[in-house]
């Protein structure tokens, strides 16, 4: 069964997140840039003068065995960068056409 990993992160750490994807041999993904949001640990990012900054969202459809590796690397990155904000979410991918 396939999995979907969604990674949300501060745009300032895009290079670090993409390095993680390379380490995990991720070749296919969808990236959404300039997303706005608010999180308890990452703060508010609305891309304006009051709430500067934006987020990126990365969707990775992968084999079940690859998902834990991605999550592990993101967890390490989260520990390393802390306040910059990076989170990963995992769910089952029932169908892809």
Helices and strands, with pairings:
Layout: E1 2-10, H1 14-23, E2 30-35, E3 37-39, E4 43-45, E5 55-63, H2 67-81, E6 86-93
Antiparallel strand pairs: 1-5, 1-6, 2-5, 3-4
Describe the protein's architecture and organization.
This protein is an alpha+beta fold and 97 residues long. Helices cover 26% and strands 39% of the residues. It has helices spanning 14-23, 67-81; strands spanning 2-10, 30-35, 37-39, 43-45, 55-63, 86-93. Strand 3 (37-39) and strand 4 (43-45) form a beta hairpin. Helix 1 runs antiparallel to helix 2. The two termini are 14 Å apart.
Helix content: 25-40%
Mean pLDDT: 90
Low-confidence stretches: none
β-strand number: 6
Structural class: alpha+beta
Keywords:
single chain; 97 residues; alpha+beta; 4-stranded antiparallel beta sheet; two-stranded antiparallel ribbon; 26% helix; 39% strand; globular
Short description:
With 97 residues, the chain is of the alpha+beta class. The protein has helices spanning 14-23, 67-81, and strands at residues 2-10, 30-35, 37-39, 43-45, 55-63, 86-93.
């Amino acid at each position: 069964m396939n999995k979907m990993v969604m990674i949300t992160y501060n745009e300032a750490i895009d290079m670090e997140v993409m390095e993680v994807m390379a380490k995990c041999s991720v070749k296919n993904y969808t990236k959404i840039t300039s997303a706005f949001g608010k999180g308890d640990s990452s703060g508010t990012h609305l891309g304006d003068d009051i709430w500067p900054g934006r987020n990126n969202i990365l969707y990775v459809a992968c084999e079940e065995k690859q998902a834990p590796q991605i999550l592990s690397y993101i967890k390490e990155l989260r520990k390393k960068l802390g306040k910059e904000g990076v989170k990963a979410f995992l769910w089952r991918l029932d169908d892809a056409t």
